[in-house]
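Chain entry —
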Amino acid sequence: MPLVKRTPAPAAHQESPPQDIEEGLRSPEPGCRRQAAHACASRPDAIPLLSDSLRVETEPAVRQAILTALVGIGGDDAVRAIVPCLRSDDAGIRTGALDALRALSADIEPWLPSLLADPDADVRVLSTELARGMPADRATLHLCRMLERESHPNACAAALDVLAEVGTREAVPALRRLAARFAGEPFVVFAASVAIARIEGTKG
């Protein structure tokens, strides 16, 4: 279940927001930073402050409050603030960012082609999950374009897992070409065959 939802901040955190948001986000007290983040949830002008704080914040609860505020604001600038977290070495940060980007599904599609072509295979693997919540035809289009050029077996497997759930019949030719190209990687061939079987068996 996603950790970050596109919902307003809890009322308890809105009762006494800091007088100065910037000062609050820089406070040494995690509770103050968290309140300041919640107070930004309806302020697009606060995105630069939230983005700066997200880069340096080490307290998980505050980080989640910042991500929740960015999701509440939404839009391209909020996505731009979150995407760099997908490159973090910290699994908790990557997971939080992925949940936040899933919650921004209406804003993420323009970013997906570049994320699915990222030089970092781990980013490509994570980004396949962002397609899972899209309309099936759009998810199929983006993931099949990725698979036509993808060289990393794990990234292929991640895309195949999503396509097995949401892919349309238009994916089948690309999946067959992928299986032929990765004939020496049995698990990719198997995953492609599973995806094809599910698509042909359950999709109109």
In short: Confidence is low (pLDDT under 50) at residues 8-15. The CA atoms of residues 63 and 193 lie 40 Å apart. Residues 186-202 form the longest helix (17 residues).
